[in-house]
Structures are given as structure tokens and as C-alpha cells.
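Q: Got a minute? One more chain.
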Amino acid sequence: TFAGRLSEAFGWRYVASVVVLYGINQGIGESLVYFVRQYYILDTLGLSATRMGQVLGFAGIPWQLKSLFGVLSDTVPINGRHRSPYIVLAGVLGTIATLVLAVLPAEVMSFELVAIILLLMNVNFSMPDVMIDAAVAERSQQRPELAADLQALCWGSNSMISIVAQCTKGYLYVLGGARLVLGICVATAACVLVPPLNGWVDERKPGAQSGVRASCADARQLCASAWQHETKRRVTG
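A: Always. Here it is, folded:
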């Protein structure tokens, strides 16, 4: 089978990681957040359409920084790991931000606070997206014959699971308003913590050094390698 072939090649944990990050976090979480945020801003907070445009424009910055996230994870490993720590960071920030938006009353929410919270929620979507894309690229180099299957796994997980959100988001909003939808999004934001905390995304190489000294050495080596690559040099410049 399709899933069995990929699991045999890369392990079921990696396949599960793609489903969690692309399917649950983006397919459900991103769909619900992008749906409810306009109602929250206009109806709950009572901001104008102009202010909403300003908030959403600022909140979209993380998506414009995807290349920077990729270069950073390639060149600055944390405790010997290039992907997992960044996914954990995105998961923690996104979970806290979504929880704040779901719990705090509208009276204490300012224009600036809402903009920052929505920005952190987009970090929760965009940073894991870059990390899993990098993992897909690495595995596509290892097994070129499965590159198309890996892409199909990513986009298929996103599309198929997002159907659940698309079919239920209106009913959820009618049933419990923005807070109910955001409460569900807390769970979809936190789910990105499962793969990295369980070692599903990347593992320390056997015999590799650990600690700050090893990370700094790896960072220097990878920075030099990235600077020699014309495309990466243009991005960092």
C-alpha cells in the first residue's frame, strides 16, 4: 500500500509526523484559525475592516520568513538537532498564543496584543511547515523514486483531513462561537509537539558529540557551507 511503502522506507513515525504536522496542525488548525479570526476581530473585538487588514498583514509576517527559518535550522542546530527544537518552539508559542486568545475576555484585548498573538499562531503553522519540507527534501535525496509519494503524503494529508474542518467549522461557530473554535485550535497547535518530543522527526547521529560546543562547531561548518551556496547566500544577504 501507499502508506506501507513509505513506512517501510522511512519508518511509520516519520509518516505519522507528516500527518500530524500537515494534516492536523495545518489541515484542521490552520483552516479553523483562518476562518474564525475574522469573526473574532470584527464581531468579538469590534474592530473595523481597516484595522483587521492591518492585523492580518502583520500576522502574516512568519510566512514571509520561511526561507529564513530554513537557513536558521540548517546552520544553527540546537543540541545537535536541526528540526525538532524549532518545531517544539513553534508548538509552545502557538499553543500559548491560541490559549490566550481563547481564554482572555475581549475587554482586555488590545489591537497590538491581538496582532502579536495572531503572528505567533502563524509561527505555529509556518515553522513546522519549513521543517517538514526540509525533512521531505532530505528523504527525497535518499530515495528519489519515492519523492512523488512523499509530496503526495504531505498534500494528501493536508487536503483530506482539512475536509473535516471545512465541513464542521460553520456548525462549530454557531454552536459555541469563536471560543469553541479557538479551544479546538489549542489542541491542533499543541499536536505539533508530539513528533519532536518523541523523536519522530530527526535523531541524534550515533556517536555524535552533544552540548553547546558540538552545536557551535556544527553551526560554523553549516554556515560556511550555506555561504558557499549561491541561493542560500542571497537569502541570508
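A: The two ends are 44 Å apart (CA to CA).
Q: Perfect, thanks.
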